[in-house]
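Running this now, will post back.
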Amino acid sequence: MSFDFYKFLEVSKTIKNNSQWVEEQHFIRTGISRAYYSVFRPARDKIKRFDFYDFMSEFKGSHDEIVKILKMLGREQRKVRSLPHIFETLRRLRVNADYEDEKLNKEDLDKAISHAEKCHSLIKQIQRY
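Update: finished.
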């Protein structure tokens, strides 16, 4: 049985809806990070399943590589044109949450959740050529 990475987004929403947790940096940062990873794996898995990239020989697991492929798909498939930008914005939020010292707040978590929800919707619309 494989793990449902969408459940990470549920963790983010649980943090957002808890009035005590949403005031704590470690919870906000965890929520942002989990929102990103709720999207990363489904995007990677869809790319792999549709053979948009030769995962076994060339893919290094790089987040940058996924962005490049999403940009290519956005040029080819109008319905998902906004996906790379939204994904990159979510990724920047995750990097800030995981590596930077700047204070994050509930609005940052709200933005991460909103972007993750949009990404999930767009990933479902990616079509095989």
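The helical segments are 7-16, 25-49, 63-76, 83-99, 106-123. More later if anyone needs it.
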